[in-house]
């Protein structure tokens, strides 16, 4: 099988390694089947899409809607590189799955309005599939509504004209969309389980997602939640697009 590629941007080694482990676990992949490139550590190398089965984009501390003048040189470079890659991915309708940061990155690339209107605190929310979502092969077998983990400072306020809405929630209307047939983005995190979310809360305690002194409360709420459906989406993506 040709490997999948995980594009990552987390500078904290614990969070970056935990994210990679989560994509391996829920994608049903061995280490040799998932190459990782940490974009925050250096420039994106030249990629031949033909070398891969598909691409994952993990979550990020970056917010694409931040004022340009406030972005670091690293963030600006990463955004340029991802924009150039998405030019090729969308044109080729190449299998792509962006989790959380994927909505901001793919949405902005496709002309969506990305801002803080529908930001959500860290925790579990209920996601509901649209009719198009229920009909999409990637979501086959999922219940119409299911719990998912979120935690983001920005979201898609207006869906790109090129996109099909696949899932929504009361607190954030755009939870998942598709561009063409094979390019996907979710606002929720299908790669997270309870312990991974608790680890994120600890790592990003001072990152502005919640008051730092409330971290323990967020961890307790996370441990009390039951989220066991979204992980199937990653396995479905791998199963659908794995190729020799």
TrEMBL record:
A family per Pfam: GATase
Gene3D superfamilies noted in UniProt: 3.40.50.880
Gene Ontology CC: one annotated term: cytosol
Alphabetic keyword roster: Glutamine amidotransferase, Ligase, Transferase
Spans traversing the lipid bilayer: none
Record InterPro entries: ChyE-like (IPR044992), Class_I_gatase-like (IPR029062), GATASE (IPR017926)
Enzyme Commission (EC) number: 6.3.5.2
PANTHER family xref list: GLUTAMINE AMIDOTRANSFERASE YLR126C-RELATED (PTHR42695)
Official protein name in the record: Glutamine amidotransferase
Originating organism: Arthrobacter agilis
Lineage: Bacteria, Bacillati, Actinomycetota, Actinomycetes, Micrococcales
